[in-house]
Amino acid sequence: ALDIGHDLGRAILNARTFEREHQLVEELQALDTYKSQLITTVAHELKNPLTAVMGHLEMLESSPDLTGTTRSSLQVMERAAQRLGKVIDDLLLLSKVGDPTNPVIPTPVDLRAVVEEAVELSSVAADRKHVQVNVQAPPGPLVAMGDRDELDRVCTNLVSNAVKYTPEGGHVLVRLDACGDELLFSVTDDGLGISEQDQGRLFEEFFRSTNPEAAAQPGTGLGLAIVQRIVRRHGGRIDVDSELGRGSTFRVLLPLRD
Ligand code: ADP
């Protein structure tokens, strides 16, 4: 009888702990939804006045009788407004790709074409600092099912980060391969590398490295958070292997089209 009483007591205790944990998970989910809604609302509220500011700046800049000082001030304002616009667009994309009620509408996407475009987009920045970018891929198309714009964003972001965080004269290797029923896309650089401590936080929104050399590069810390969400909502995974001072490899695995 004592044993039964003891077991019953433990069962009740377990049930209560389970109920409390369940409640905590629900509270955290509600907070997360609230945070996403707040980000979307704020981003929308910022976007409209910014569009007006940019329109008027353009109009003023096209005026023929501006002094040199006024013109260069207007150009500084326009660049600042464009940077702000990019942050706002990234915030809107971050909440879009993190929204489970808005899933991907999958279409066949040839990752080879996506990778070639991403490399082309980074070529000006790479040439400027003499960073060599090479692509390694088997012949023929490699098709995943997904959203073309979102997969573009994944490749562009990882390739441009590799170029951005690799000093003058470095190397970037972009690999694409079929790996069983998955598609492997990886970007390796011999640049700044990432400390183990920072690797644990890389995919958090707004995270930027504490390494002064990396922090000296412009950025918002939203890129990898967006990339990870896109990869996850495509049923894939992403990881990083890096050593400070030696370089990094970002690896993305996506399901291949059946
Ligand atoms: P951003 O580049 O705008 O700061 P990201 O989310 O793309 O934002 O990257 C977050 C941080 O991760 C960067 O600030 C940088 O410190 C680090 N990082 C990303 N990619 C690399 C890389 N290839 N090599 C070294 N550090 C990197």
UniProtKB/TrEMBL annotation:
<feature type="domain" description="Histidine kinase">
    <location>
        <begin position="41"/>
        <end position="258"/>
    </location>
</feature>
<protein>
    <recommendedName>
        <fullName>histidine kinase</fullName>
    </recommendedName>
</protein>
